[in-house]
């Protein structure tokens, strides 16, 4: 196979455009002897005669014109590659892989993807549903570029591998059976439900969040039933089996469930994104973070948690 040298092909193309070795040398900031030497080397590499003397000038051979016809396709593809690479560097193109917990996918990630399609169509987002531990393992291994979790489950702010970015202070509302005496009481405080059976997970972050919110309101919740999934929790609330704290972005309307906003002692959970340290600057990852902030802003309840908050 012939040895195709892009730089030498560019010199040959410039010679076709400029007409003389001297003009070619001036255009490329080379000496005429260097131009001649490069084209002689290219002719040797390709095994064909590229130039013929014509008085004090040279002319391209038919073989040289054939070579340039094919080279034009190469130059065109290289221009496209340059443009795509420049867009990638500016954060206008590329693929970003996101690992996010289940309720964050429809509430935050999907709206961000829709916004990016309009503002930066060159950025492709690949989504992988993953709870915190798996998401951060994937992030550390380089299998995702960005992980979403609750702040309490995120790596420590002093972990040198990652940068944490606050996204959302998600309010927790109370789910009550439709016929509950307090379903329409005004105002409603968390402490008003101290005697109720509560529905929450037996362990893990949501158990901690529910217990912590109730204890902050002055009582220890009696766990009437244990469940981890929101469909199961809300089905039990609808059946009158107890009450539950539900993050606003996870709530799905049910005919027999009344969602009540707490006023005086409203608890919140904080949602954060994490990236490998340094990846948040100047790349497509930064565009995705901006889009996630945009989808989180209308949902956020008051100030977001600082990077080290839980």
Descriptive notes:
With 310 residues, the protein is of the alpha/beta class. The chain has nine helices and eleven strands. The protein has helices at 6-18, 21-28, 32-46, 62-89, 104-119, 132-141, 205-216, 230-238, 284-296; strands spanning 51-54, 57-60, 94-100, 123-129, 146-150, 162-177, 197-199, 222-225, 244-247, 257-260, 268-276. The strands form three sheets. Strands 3, 4, 5, 6, 9, 10 and 11 form a seven-stranded mixed β-sheet that branches. Helix 1 (6-18) crosses helix 4 (62-89). The model is unreliable at 303-310 (pLDDT under 50).
Quick overview:
With 310 residues, the protein is α/β, with parallel strands linked by helices. Helices cover 40% and strands 22% of the residues. It has helices spanning 6-18, 21-28, 32-46, 62-89, 104-119, 132-141, 205-216, 230-238, 284-296, and strands spanning 51-54, 57-60, 94-100, 123-129, 146-150, 162-177, 197-199, 222-225, 244-247, 257-260, 268-276.
């Amino acid at each position: 196979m012939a040895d195709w040298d892009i730089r030498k092909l560019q010199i040959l193309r410039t010679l076709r455009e400029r007409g003389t070795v001297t003009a070619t040398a001036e255009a490329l900031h080379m000496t005429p002897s260097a131009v001649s030497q490069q084209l002689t080397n290219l002719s040797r590499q390709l095994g064909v005669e590229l130039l013929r003397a014509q008085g004090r000038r040279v002319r391209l051979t038919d073989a040289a014109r054939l070579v340039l016809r094919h080279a034009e396709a190469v130059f065109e593809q290289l221009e496209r590659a340059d443009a795509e690479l420049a867009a990638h560097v500016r954060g206008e193109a590329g693929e970003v892989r996101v690992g996010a917990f289940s309720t964050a996918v429809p509430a935050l990630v999907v709206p961000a993807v829709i916004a990016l399609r309009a503002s930066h169509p060159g950025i492709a987002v690949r989504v992988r549903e993953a709870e915190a531990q798996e998401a951060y393992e994937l992030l550390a291994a380089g299998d995702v570029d960005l992980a979403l979790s609750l702040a309490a489950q995120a790596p420590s702010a002093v972990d040198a591998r990652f940068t944490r970015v606050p996204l959302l202070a998600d309010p927790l509302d109370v789910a009550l059976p439709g016929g509950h005496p307090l379903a329409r009481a005004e105002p409603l405080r968390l402490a008003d439900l101290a005697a109720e059976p509560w529905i929450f997970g037996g362990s893990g972050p949501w158990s901690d969040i529910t217990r912590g919110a109730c204890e902050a309101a002055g009582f220890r919740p009696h766990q009437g039933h244990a469940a981890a999934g929101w469909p199961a929790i809300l089905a039990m609330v609808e059946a009158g089996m107890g009450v539950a704290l539900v993050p606003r972005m996870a709530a799905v309307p049910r005919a027999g469930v009344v969602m009540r906003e707490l006023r005086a002692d409203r608890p919140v959970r904080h949602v954060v994104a994490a990236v490998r340290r340094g990846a948040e600057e100047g790349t497509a990852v930064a565009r995705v973070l901006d889009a996630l902030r945009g989808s989180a802003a209308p949902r956020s309840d008051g100030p977001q948690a600082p990077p080290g908050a839980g």
